[in-house]
Design brief:
The chain is of the alpha/beta class. It has a single domain, classed as TIM Barrel (Alpha-Beta Barrel). It is 39% helix and 16% strand. Strands 1-2-3-4-5-6-7-8 form an eight-stranded parallel β-sheet. Strand 4, helix 4 and strand 5 form a beta-alpha-beta unit. Helix 2 packs parallel to helix 3. The longest helix has 18 residues. The chain is globular. The protein starts with a strand and ends with a helix. The structure holds zinc ion. Zinc ion (ZN) binds next to loops.
């Protein structure tokens, strides 16, 4: 039986929040059995923990501070985050990382918040869930320092080049692939390096409600992405890797269960 886990759903703090039952129902009908719900700041992560608790064995959360919100990081944040991480429904530290694309927080604030969260991941030995946009060198440099002490680490929504991929694999990072790869215009570079990701390092994600796969047919009118489209992304990725969809799906499912320590 083919089944899926979506490792990036922005269920809280997005338009999906008002239709949780429908989102879950449709995901389940599409064999998307479990979802990792992303926490972007501490308040949202607390809501994520509460929400996931209501759907045990289906929803699991991350707790952390996204680089966009890095300016919110304060002396009290580490302690607050540690308490969020003690919830059973929270399975990773993050999402955290660097995003120099829009710099909603300054690069210095981002580096500080990221490094603090790397330290917490080391301390708790929980998997770390990372984001990187237009900050590859700084990202690699920082992760390299902490990698030997970290347990599991994933770079979600990887959109980089072949050489950037090699840098990540050298640090033994897992790689999350979104529907970005389904975009025939800007997803081209990514499509070319998909086949170089080892079977045991790959995970799949929608990043819904963002990043609606552009090659969905018929094209959904709303422009909203949902976890139910994950099998479509798996299709595209399997084709690029010249693997069967069943093989790819099973591999990613097993990788994800192991990575997050799900039962
Ligand atoms: Zn992200």
């Amino acid at each position: 039986m083919t089944r899926y886990i979506d490792i990036a759903v922005n269920l809280i703090g997005s338009k999906l929040e008002h239709q949780i039952e429908t989102v879950l129902h449709e995901a389940h009908a599409a064999a998307v059995e479990k979802q990792i719900i992303v926490g972007s700041n501490l308040e949202e992560s607390a809501e994520v923990a509460t929400c996931c608790k209501q759907y045990p064995n289906t929803l699991f959360g991350t707790a952390g501070v996204h680089p966009h919100y890095a300016s919110q990081w304060s002396d009290q944040s580490s302690e607050k985050l540690l308490s969020l991480l003690s919830h059973d429904s929270i399975v990773a530290v993050g999402e955290c990382g660097l995003d120099f694309n829009r710099n909603f927080s300054t690069p210095d604030q981002q580096l500080k918040a990221f490094e603090s969260q790397l330290e917490i991941a080391v301390q708790t030995q929980m998997p770390i869930y990372m984001h990187c946009r237009d900050a590859h060198n700084e990202f690699i440099q920082l992760v390299k320092q902490y990698r030997p002490q970290l347990s599991n680490a994933v770079l979600h929504c990887f959109t980089g080049s072949r050489s950037e991929l090699e840098d990540c694999l050298e640090l033994d990072l897992f790689i999350g692939i979104t529907g970005w790869v389904c975009d025939e215009r800007r997803g081209q570079t990514l499509a070319e390096c998909i086949k170089y990701i080892p079977n045991d390092r790959l995970m799949l994600e929608t990043d819904s409600p963002y990043l609606l796969p552009r090659n969905l047919k018929p094209k959904p009118k709303s422009g909203t992405n949902y976890p139910k489209y994950l099998p479509h992304i798996a299709d595209t990725v399997a084709n690029l890797r010249q693997q069967s969809k069943e093989f790819l799906a099973k591999q990613c499912f097993d990788n994800t269960m192991d990575f997050f320590g799900l039962e």
